[in-house]
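Notes for week 9. Today we move from apo structures to complexes. The key idea is that a small molecule is not decoration. When we ask for a structure prediction with adenosine-5'-triphosphate present, the ligand SMILES becomes part of the input, just like the chain. The input block below holds both the sequence and the ligand string. Read it once before you look at the output, and try to guess where the molecule might sit.
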Amino acid sequence: MGIDFGVCIQNMKKKLILNDQLHGFDKEQNELIQIIKKTTDFGESDSMIILGPRGCGKSILLESVIKSLSPESHTLVLLNGLIHTDDNLALKSIIQQLQMENLDGTFAEGSYADNISFLLESFRAGNKTASKSIIMVLDRFDMFCSHTNQTLLYNLFDSVQSQQSPLCIIGLTSRIDVIELLEKRVKSRFSHNIMMLNPPSEISQLLERFKHSLIINKHCKVKADVLKNWNNNIELLISDVRIQNLMKDLLKSSNNSTKLNLLIFHALSNMSNDLILTVENLTNNYTTLFKKDMILVHLLGLSVLELCLMISICHHSEIYDQEPFNFEMIYDRYCKFALRNSTLLVTKRQVIIKAFERISVMQLILPVAVIENKNVLREYRLYKCSINLDKVKTASNLYFRLPPVILQWIDSNII
Ligand SMILES: Nc1ncnc2c1ncn2[C@@H]1O[C@H](COP(=O)(O)OP(=O)(O)OP(=O)(O)O)[C@@H](O)[C@H]1O
């Protein structure tokens, strides 16, 4: 029975990783099923846009609906604005996913005009009853709107409107102004079915999601008393004020669903041998996962050369009372140190310029007077340091195998 309980925990973790567990959105799920079934069962073409902030569950909702359909009832075509960056790429992918290139070997290789007329001809040749339905998902729908003349969108929506082969187009986007992005002729062909998805906005909703992910149901082959203890413990956790505060904190972050899943996954992975989920476990994991000192994380991600430049910058700022500096000043300070220590290679100037620029991109140093800086050679642009020497010292002490001369240099009398 102990093994069964372990398997149960593993299954919980698997569901969290595979995004296999839609919670809530019952109304939206039903609405989406109705629209898709109109195409798969009755051959009626339609289009819809699912709109919601990043990570609110648009994909998981659509996946749950598609999973509930019988695979024979439709052909799925998946497009993503990040991958299919122009109409030509998108069209080739549609033809390949519909396995139409086999009809004429040259088509997927042919010009855009050939391909689109071939695709539209195929749609026209179909009919409501005999043709297999196509569900076409356009993830990052807003990116398709930036394609030249929106030709593909126009042709797809036109096919939907003229009810040729059964085709259901579902767009997923987080752009609230997506309709405004459509050209007039495309907009007029779109069905204006828009589904808004809202992520949890109240603590109770997040706690409900937490419970849903962790409660073990009765079908699980676990001893009755083990199951009862586990579920009672989850109820206790939910009523604990520390967990409620933690959820309050999670709610403030932009993508609370992904973070909640990650937190539960780590808490389950770090359970002690007695397999009990505790408040301490959850709060500790929460702190390590989401309460990191990001400046420290950035500093630990620097190369040794970049860290040395940061030390030079902090030394300079301490000596000159936070006065602005340029690359030449820091380069000079770094070279003096590097030449004193034969263990450190004096690197090429260009490499050091690149390292300095990376530090600037990471905003560990900030430009002063951006407008004036534009007309100045990059070596002479002025910057100010956004962190202090103590932070760099902490990072250096944690840095993996930092040469001791560098550690001594940080603490050496600044000259
Ligand atoms: N209602 C929900 N039930 C269960 N998990 C959810 C829910 N909503 C979001 N999630 C989780 O949040 C994460 C992001 O979900 P999903 O990929 O569906 O969001 P999305 O809106 O499609 O994001 P994007 O805009 O970045 O494409 C996934 O790990 C998913 O499991």
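The pocket of adenosine-5'-triphosphate is lined by residues 19, 21-25, 52, 54-60, 174, 257-258, 261 (CB under 6 Å).
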